[in-house]
Structure formats: C-alpha cells, structure tokens
Amino acid sequence: MKLRGRVLDVLLVLAALVFIAPFLFTLIASFRTPADLARDPLGWPDALTLANYRASIGQIRYLSSALNTIVLTLASCVAVSVLGALASYPLGRFTARWTSVAYRLFAVGLTVPVFVVIGPLYLLMRDLHLLDNRLGLVIIYTALNLPVSVFFYTSFVRQIPVELEEAAAIDGCGPLRTFFTVVFPLLRPITGTLLTFVSLQVWNNLVIPLVFLQDPAKSTVMANAYSLADPHTLQPAQLFPAALLGALPLFLLFLIFQRQVIQGMTAGAVK
Amino acid sequence: MFRRRGHLLAILFILPAAVVYGLFILYPLVRDVLMSFTDNTGGPASAFVGADQYRTLLGDPVARDALWHTVVYAAVVLVVQTTLGLLFATLLTRRPRIRRTVSSVLLLPALMSPVMASFIWSYLYRPDGGINTFLGSIGLHALQQIWLGDASIALYAIAAVNIWMFAGYSCIIFLAGYAGIPQELLDAADLDGAGWWQRFRKVEWAMLAPALTVNVTLSLIGSLGVFDYPLVLTGGGPVGSTNTLALLVYQDIFRNSDFGMGAATAVVLLVLVLVVSSSAGALLRRRERVL
Asked: What average pLDDT does the segment B198-207 reach?
C-alpha cells in the first residue's frame, strides 16, 4: 500500500514535469546562443548568454511597456475594487425590487464576451476622444471587471454583521465614512482575491490595448509583443525571452502571494 | 443603514459603478444589437437594412465555418481540459504530501498570457520546431506533422495550447471541491466496503458537482470567445481552418471597417454563448440540487 503510494507520487511528479516541459525548455533555450539552439534544439546548452534578453527587451520595448502595464493594472485595480465595493454594499444589504434588477444587470456582464461590445465601444471611445488614451483603457478595464467585483463583494457583504455599522452610525459617522472606515476594511480578504484576478486579466489582455491604443509608447507588454515580434519569422532565441519576460511579473506575484492567487482563481468553486 | 435612509442612499452608492458599467458595457451591448440591422461602417451615416446582414452572414461559408470551428473548439477544450483537471485532482487529493507543490506547478501555465503561451507553442509547432525534433529523436517520424499548416489539425493544435494552459486551473478547482467533501462521508463509504471506483462514482463525483459547474462555465465562456491563440498562432489560417467568431468580429470591424457586419457576427456569438452557457448551467445546477 505504502509502496503503491510512493510510485503514484513519483508518477504524478513526472507527469507534472512533462506538463510544464514546454515551459522548462523555453527557460533553458532562452539563455542559449541562436547557433547552439539551431544546431540541437533539444540538447543541453554549450554556454549561457544574456544577449537574447538584451535584444528582446529592445525589440518589444519591454521596459516602457511593462511600466505602462503596471500603471494600468494598478489604476484598474483601485477603480474596480472601490466602485465595486461601493455598489455591492447596498446590493448585499438592501433588498428592494430595483436592487435585484441592478444585480442581475451586473451579472449579465459575467457571460458576455468582450467581442460582443467591442465595435460599439470603439465608436463610443472615438466620440469621447478617448482613443489612444490610457485613461480610456482604465475605464474599459474597470467596466469589464465590475461584474466580477460586484459578484464577489455582494456575497461577502452579506456575511458581515450589521451591528458594526450600526455602532459607527450611532457614533455619528456619515454613510461614506462608515463605508470607508468600517465596511471596506472588513472586505479585505475578498479584495485580495479580487485584485489578483483583475491583475491577471489586465496584465494578460491583448485585444483591448490592440484596439484602443495605437502608439507603442503608450501600449502594454502583450500588445507590443504581438505587434513588434512576429513569432513566425523571429528567431526562437529572441522569441523565448519575450515570452518569459511577459510572464515574469505574474510569476513573481505568484511566488509571493501563492495562496491568494489560488484563492482568487478558485473563488466560487466551494460554496 | 439603508433601512433608515432608504433608497436614495442606496442609489448614491451604486451610481458610480452603474454609470461606468452602463455606459461602457450595457450601452455598447444594446447598440451592437441595433447596429447589426444597419450597414454602419463607422461613419456618421448608416441605413437600416433589416435582417440583410444576418442573411449575408448565414449564406457566407466563411462565417458558417467560423461558427462551426468555434463550437468544435469549445467542445474539445471543455472535454479534454476538464477530464485532465479531474484526473490530476483525483490522484492528487489522495497524495497530500505532494499535492500543493504539484498543483502549483500545474497552475504555472495559467498565469501566462495567451500571447506568451502562443509564442512558446508557435516555436514548438514549427515544421523544424521542438515537437517534430523530439518525435524524430525518439524514432517517431511517422507522427511528425506540419502542426499549424495542416488545415485538418491546426484547430486541434490550437485547442491543445488552451488545454495546456488551463488544465492545471481546472485541477485546482476540482481540488477545492474535493477539500469540501466531508470526511465522514468518505469514511462511511470505506466502512461499507466501497472500492476506489465505487467511492469515486457514488460519493465524490456527486459531491464535486459545484466544482464541475465552475469548471464547465469558465471553460465555455473562455473558449467560445477564443481569439488570442488563433490570432497569434495562425491568424485564422490555413485556408480559414482556424477562423473563429471572435476573430471574424475583429476582422470585420478593424480590418474592413464593416461595423454592421461585425455587430451581426457579434450577436451570433452572443446568442451562442448565452444558449450554450445557460443550458449547461441549468443541467449542472439540477445536479447540484440533488446534493
């Protein structure tokens, strides 16, 4: 019995290694010289080099794109969590006919693919002079992620005891102050979960920056990688560092916040 | 608080989110449906053309193929990804010592963006790329393919990238489901002398219903709107064999400036997503209610 368990352990670890083999291969190959890689793609490297990374960083404008994406991600996270929590507070607490209609309207956004709205949204952003504008992108990401935010927060608000707010109200706190000093801090666990989810969405998104930003100097890592590096013609030695650099910040985030990330990704699986 | 001050206060709290969501999601959604009955090309003037766009769309083999590809793609991803995730979770839940490490490793691809995963796989799939080299080195020359250049397999090759990215995700959702099964229930099954398979089929599979619902819903919503992988890997080719509805919407609008046709294609996508996800949801929730 014990032996069978050990064998299963080994098999599972091996299966996991096979599963991420493409990733490990990319990691090793990204440090090999182009000639070495072409000679024997699956072989062991002769020597390691950072030249690929240097070339890749220049080609996809990594540093400025990464900075843009970080700012966009942070701004969207703040807007999504504040607006979502504000709206969910009455949605979770106050039962009237119109609040359940409002909740259902937000829920519509959980299933609608972005491509269904992208044409009219483009015309709207054009008419509002928000094309090629980073603020416009933050607004779009906020709108796209509000349904998830409302969905998470509303169910969480229902679990918070009302007494705390009532005590704050008796102490003379106004509604906004009660919200920001009493309610919002209580929402912290679900906010962490939500923000990892939103960060993943914003960082990895391609179509929004591709459509709504034209200037590469303003654009994100994914859009610039797509427009500036053609995977079909590019040398693999340059392709691999680009792929890894694009994922690097999220891998770091995952290393630090592993538990929150897993919770963020599985939220809703357990009732 | 809302009980005492009532509706006005509630409205004020909801207002900012409602304005942003209403203006930038709901309004475009409604306008998309309206626009699908016009010949809008993005300019100020457009004429009402009734159901003409839809008639053109249904008669267009490119659009019909794209619809079919989208359905096949979603079905393949749904079945294979969920099965792999369930398999890994079912084995891992019995091996607590390695569970965390292995599931974290499996989750790594899900953190990448589809663009970056496509970069890696576009090399692996090249005629002289990683997969063919590997197959050659172990003597399986017969299995070598032009993965993305063969119209009969390109769609499945792209689905494989999607599955590779999210099977680990599916696995941790099932693991969370397994963690929620009360130990007494499993002990009772063991006491009754249930074997491995019986325990899984009679107890665990039923108790995993909520996790299955989440997995199926996420997978369907993601794969029916698939865009990034075919855009980067094949651009819809070869000979349109990996064209999907989302890709078609994008091409209609941003390559051909045909906003009307793009809107009609988007409505088809919307109807497909709503019909498929709501019928899957209804089926799965009925299973949950049995719990």
From this structure: 87
Asked if A3 is an interface residue toward chain B (Cβ–Cβ < 8 A), one would say no
Closest chain B C-alpha to A115 CA, distance in angstroms: 6
The ipTM assigned to this model is: 0.90
Return the number of other C-beta atoms located less than 10 Å from residue B201's C-beta.
12
Contacts of A232 in chain B (CB under 8 A): 122
pLDDT digits (tens, 9 = 90+) for B148-195: 988 899 999 999 999 999 999 999 999 989 988 888 888 888 888 888
- Considering the domain B60-290 in this protein, what is its CATH number? 1.10.3720.10
The domain defined by A31-266 folds into MetI-like fold (1.10.3720)
Diameter over CA atoms, chain A:
76
Say if A214 is an interface residue toward chain B (CB within 8 Å): no
A91 within 8 A of A154, measured Cβ to Cβ: yes
Q: Which residues of A touch B269 (CB under 8 A)?
A: 113, 115-116
| pTM of the complete model | 0.91
The answer to whether A200 contacts B245, with C-beta atoms less than 8 Å apart, is no
Report B:33-72 residues touching A (Cβ under 8 A): 35, 42
